[in-house]
Model the fold of this input.
Amino acid sequence: MKTFKTLLLGLCIVMCACSTQTPRQTNEYGTNWQWENGTIVIETPERPAGQKSVLGLTVPKMEVVRVGFVGLGMRGPGAVERFTHIPGTQVVALCDYEQSRAERCQKYLKKASMPKAAIYSGEKGYEELCKRDDIDLVYIAADWLHHFPVAKYALENGKHVAIEVPSAMNLQQCWDLINMSEKYRKHCMILENCCYDWFEMNTLNMAQQGVFGEVIRAQGAYIHNLSPFWNHYWKNGENDKLGWRLDYNMRHRGDVYATHGLGPVAQALDIHRGDRMKTLVAMDTKSAIGKALVEERADSICNNFRNGDHTTTLIRTENGKVIEIQHNVMTPQTYNRLYQLTGTKGFANKYPISGYALDAKQLTASGVQPKIDDLNSHSFLPKSEMETLVAKYQHPILKKYGEMAKEVGGHGGMDFIMDCRLVYCLQNGLPLDMDVYDLAEWCCLAELGTLSMDNNCAAVAFPDFTRGEWNVVKGYKHAYASPEEEKAVAEKAAAFTAKLKEQGEKEWGETENQEAK
Done:
């Protein structure tokens, strides 16, 4: 009888194990996953031997940041122009699939009296650019499918990389970039400009100073009707009827452009700096507009448009907080990034109405004396109180770069602030504002969301891109040099740029004289 009970107990244990854990499966990207207690789980690969974390990575100070730009279609030219306004930088090389687009960017260098840049073009032109020994940073603004191969080649050739969004299109690319950054000890930064917009930066500063209490919920989105832009995305030859971005949306499900919404709220929630994204559930609508766009351009029936017109992702963190991220580039709506923080003592909201909700007690505790009686958090602060609050908590980075950024431009100036911070950190030997783990965490929603939706909107566990070190750093922070160090670096940068402009004026003058003859 005892033997029978033992066998029965063993059988029950086996049956329970079988009911909670299933054999591995492989998705369209080659990712291995399995069910564990009703959740899709993806293994976190072990860190290869000889590698170590790049949390807080620093490299020797760069007196001059020498840059090569790859991808000069819609976003790249603006970046080239912005860099001509940043002291201590030199645009060394320009690369695009089409040579004419690279050549056209020389006009920005001429306008700024900067020397001409070397030109590279063609399908593999970026490889020759990356092989140069006079480039420190490769700035990548190509179409999405080329972000990873260009970054990979640059890192393998000893360059730091800054990659437009989304910087990686699947988990394998995320892990590859992490491993290369760790192996080669090179920065791999995601160019998420929305982290540098005015409302987001000031609100982040408020959150870090406790104005909202503990932030327990956040929202972000990219809701942008792209109907005016679909025809302007690069097409690979006359047989390409869709352009690269519409084609990508047709072939891939999930939030393929999550980082504008996720980046700023991830910083406010200290992701991989004391908390981590643990589980997500994603859900999308059917494709109505996307499917119709393909049929209109391709003059044929579209049987499978993978990306839903509107995608929603819910994320729960290790510390019990919730993030909601939305993506919609199809339906007629006003532009909206949703940016919203819900705290235990206050509330911040950017779209469609920018404002803060605090009661009189919390506003006073935050250093602003209310000017009206019975102030409560049922509505946004009056204009005068809001302006005083924003002035008190204006982010130091905005104080430094804000006015010039408005003049230079780039999505209202946030692009310029992003570029200035990248150069500032490189010149001062500081950790960058966004590291390769941010890149992976913000970009992985596409594949993880696809896994969720392809399996009846199941829960999906996030891999730990930091490999267990998400709680080592306590709180998200921007790095700064001391005033003395900052001044010395700035003086050297200004002196270099002055000499570079002298060289450029001479070079362009000689070119004009030759053309006149």
